Amino acid sequence: MSDLESAQKDVESVREKIARFRAKAKEMQETRIEAAEMATPPDGIQCNRCGNTGYIMTIDSQGYETAITCPECFSRRQMVRWLKHSGISPEDYDRYTLENFLPDTPEAAEMKQKAMEYLDQFPATGFGVFGSSGTGKTHLCIAICHEISNRYREPHYYFSYRAVMPELVKASKSYEVDYETAMHKWKTVKNLYIDDLFKLSGKVEDGVLTDINREELKIMYDILNARYVNHLRTLFSSEYSVKSISDIDGAVGSRIFEMTNPYGLKTVGKNRRLKKITA
């Protein structure tokens, strides 16, 4: 067989592959449209182009069929998955945005400005808001998480202290493998928000934190030390100041300081939740 005949045969083979692919793609597209019209996908995102799968078929540079992410819906589906696994409720995720954070006091304006600076300098190591209850600490940190995923396309995870810590304490009293399994995610995820750090685990006298539950303190040290040495981004909110935490355990407090510096804030404002309460 001559070189010309061989080349013609290769071209014909490629044409046949393309024709089969187009026929298959058309059939799959029709099936996807029917499926999309018949049922609502779990993530609530309807897409006729990929039939709610997040993927479409195409031909690569070598003439082979391959699946690629759907340009019309995959990024939105990814955001929904990140939100589902983050631990933040969809309601709070929708409400707690930077746009909705009102800079109606000098302190609130400073908080919002610091958050925007942090996001502009991303990837900085961490961010923290410490102090008075009801000053918007959780709102601001969730808003930052939202921007990390939306602007920088990175997943984030939410550590609700009083919800998660009892499970970790329980695991710490079991087999070592159970403890390591329970701790792995919190030690290794790329972006973690720890909300209400040491909430109800500390002893407070005259408004000053004087002690922290030793079991919880050890667990938090294990998490923070792993994240600290691996330079993983961590956000914090707490009613307790970094200084008061450092006075009780310098190892934990100093790590929090270094992880949030220069994006750590102390709040002393009034509780916004009480504004509408009348005597």
How would you explain this protein's 3D organization?
The structure is a single chain. This protein is of the alpha/beta class. The chain is built from ten helices and nine strands. The strands form three sheets. Strands 4-5-8-3-9 form a five-stranded parallel sheet, sandwiched between helices. A two-stranded antiparallel sheet has the order 1-2. A two-stranded antiparallel ribbon has the order 6-7. β6 and β7 (208-212) form a beta hairpin. It is elongated. The mean pLDDT is 84.
Strand order in the largest sheet: 4-5-8-3-9
N-to-C CA distance: 98 Å
Shape: elongated
How are helices and strands ordered from N to C?
HEEHHHEHEHHEEEHEHHE
How many DSSP-defined strands? 9
Identify low-pLDDT runs.
Answer: none
Task: Give a quick rundown of the structure.
The chain has 279 residues and is α/β, with parallel strands linked by helices. It is built from ten helices and nine strands.
List the helices and strands and how they pair.
Layout: H1 3-38, E1 55-59, E2 65-69, H2 74-86, H3 90-95, H4 106-120, E3 126-131, H5 137-152, E4 157-160, H6 161-172, H7 176-188, E5 191-195, E6 202-205, E7 208-212, H8 214-229, E8 233-238, H9 242-248, H10 250-260, E9 264-267
Parallel strand pairs: 3-8, 3-9, 4-5, 5-8
Antiparallel strand pairs: 1-2, 6-7
Helix pairs in contact: 4-5, 6-7, 7-8, 8-10, 9-10
